[in-house]
Amino acid sequence: KAGVTQTPRYLIKTRGQQVTLSCSPISGHRSVSWYQQTPGQGLQFLFEYFSETQRNKGNFPGRFSGRQFSNSRSEMNVSTLELGDSALYLCASSLSGPQETQYFGPGTRLLVL
Amino acid sequence: AQSVTQPDIHITVSEGASLELRCNYSYGATPYLFWYVQSPGQGLQLLLKYFSGDTLVQGIKGFEAEFKRSQSSFNLRKPSVHWSDAAEYFCAVVGTSYDKVIFGPGTSLSVIP
After folding, report:
1. pLDDT the model gives residue B44
2. Three-state SS for A83?
């Protein structure tokens, strides 16, 4: 089985721009979660989707949004980028929710200049 | 408030020595508990998880963890560390399937040959 894939792997943007990151879960997995990892704040939960519905959202501003498609693939979008958005963005998939084993992708490293 | 603490930011051990990484949590009820490992430049990999039952849990790569309800702890152990175990280790908790995952700050493990 193919693992969780994330595209792109690396991204450089400038302040004020927007960015869209993509996550393809393991086949059959319907839950996708997104996390932001930074040296200062560690791993923080962004949101979780299940069957195209957002079930939970972390404490992030409205500039951070996401969606899930009928094939369980997910995207997250960050609008009006700020320097502090520079981070590793990790996606994880599981069969039905984060209480189960989550399989993580390699992440997208975003640098905002 | 729900939280996870990992008191040791960084630990150095000699190859072949035993290892114990500490994790304490604050949660309304007994949550699902996880240990993840992250090698440099990679996503997270699940080492083991605890939901219920036997409080001593066996995981991959020779790791085990013990859940102690009275101490709200879920410490990770390995009897003999290998150089390839050098990585960042994260403890995590989650409640119901609709709950957000809370990660600890991580413990960085260095292994001296």
Report:
1. 93
2. helix
> Are B32 and A102 an interchain contact pair (Cβ–Cβ within 8 Å)?
no
Question: What SS3 state is found at A84?
Answer: helix
Lowest mean pLDDT among A55-59, B32-36, B50-54, B96-100: B96-100
Assign 3-class secondary structure to chain B: CCEEECCCCEEEEECCCCEEECCEEECCCCCEEEEEEECCCCCEEEEEEECCCCCEEECHHHCEEEEEHHHCEEEEEECCCCHHHCEEEEEEEECCCCCCCEECCCEEEEEEC
Of A44, A55, A90, the CB nearest to B43: A90
Q: A1-25 pLDDT, tens per residue?
A: 689 999 999 999 999 999 999 999 9
Average pLDDT over residues B72-92: 97
Do the chains contact at A4 and B51, CB–CB below 8 Å?
Answer: no
pLDDT computed for residue B97 by the predictor: 64
Would the CB atoms of B103 and A33 count as touching at under 8 Å?
Answer: no
DSSP-assigned beta bridge partners for residue B35? B48, B91
Pick A101's closest partner by Cβ from B43, B46, B95: B46
Contact A43 B90 (CB under 8 A): yes
Neighbour-count burial for A60-75, b at 16+ CB within 10 Å, e otherwise: beeebbbebeeebbbb
Provide the pLDDT for residue B91: 97
